[in-house]
Amino acid sequence: MKEKFLFILRSIFKLKDKIAFFPTLIAFAGSAFAYLMFYLESQGISKYLLDIVPDLVINNTDTARTLLTTITAGSISIMVFSFSMVMVLLNQASSNFSPRLLPGLISNRRHQVILGIYVATILYCIFTLISIRPSGNEYQLPGFSVLLAIVFMVVSLGAFIYFIHSISQSIQINNIMDKIFKKSSNRLLHLIDSEKDNKESFKSSDNWNSYKSYKTGYLQNISLENIAEIAKKHECKIEISANKGAFLLEKDILFKTEIELDEETLGGLHTNFDFAKSELIEDNYVLAFKQLTEIAVKAMSPGINDPGTALNAIDYLSQLYVLRLKKNDISFTYIDDIPWVFISTVNFSSLLYEAMASLRTYCKHDVILVKRLLTMLNNLKRLSTVEAYTKSITEEIENLKTDASHSIKNERDLALIASENFNV
């Protein structure tokens, strides 16, 4: 029962990344506020305010209807324009940078809230317009509600001005990369802080019971604490075989258990794995490496040819790899200092190779980019304290020099690349 409740909560929590989530909530709030004003008007709030502060109450039926109609039409126009700007942003980001950026841009909270303000204002004005009675009696006219509609329109205009500023900032690639870096670095630092210096490891899981995935999609999130509690309850070590962020087909092995578990327990375990059709950096820091690599590669395509953006992307990658050096390739989830769950993670060697394979292919002809990549790799080699990490970095340095030597023909450039310890 607890597992099902947590599954429902996680499903609701995932909705926050949908572009319509916050607009829907704010729209409901606007509608609810309109009905609250219906009740207050029935209690005579406009009559009371008309006696106390008559300047705050709209007391003419034609004026009220004209104002509400104008505000509604204006809000719809602003909302359509704003939504069109969002579509332009998404299209440009997909074309010029990387389609992987779209989920992060769609989930922008500020833009969602602004769209919600527009919708709430429109619904409030419509419901208030309906409540106007044709008799025109001054005490039946919702004058105070009409005044609040004017206030909401002013708020919408302020939100629109802020939206123009925000959208102009969001489209700049430097801001996009900075946002990617901050989200991924925060995630990496959290994972590093949660690691324990425990030398205990699981015994070989070759003979453990294997259980397959029941869905197809990206393994977006794993509730490790819940899985660890189940493991402790049944005194059964669990190994999660699939990497977080990996694309799984049905019947691919998802996890292994030390002992065989009953169907009810397995059902509870499966509810702790969330699948999705897209990925978010907040859930998987590896996606940041992919996005920054794709931005650099796209910038070096013949149609765009923007080496400056590629250099910036490499600089952000350098900072992320420095953080990744501090994280172990093996991760456990503990309860009372006892490891119950082993998590398969993308190891440093694979993470470095996947980025460098693409960068070497598209940047090997540009000596400036090759220099920056060699600087990044040499800095990582200097900072590395793990032998396996150092070995992978050395291999990538040699691979980059080999590919560059085949593409660059200038003797001075080749001499610079051949030197391993240069400084830029």
TrEMBL record:
Transmembrane segments: 20-40, 67-90, 111-132, 144-164
Claim: Cell inner membrane is one of the keywords in the record: no
InterPro entries: DUF2254_membrane (IPR018723)
Keyword vocabulary terms for this entry: Membrane, Transmembrane, Transmembrane helix
Superkingdom per UniProt: Bacteria
UniProt keyword annotation of rRNA-binding present: no
UniProt-recorded name of the protein: DUF2254 domain-containing protein
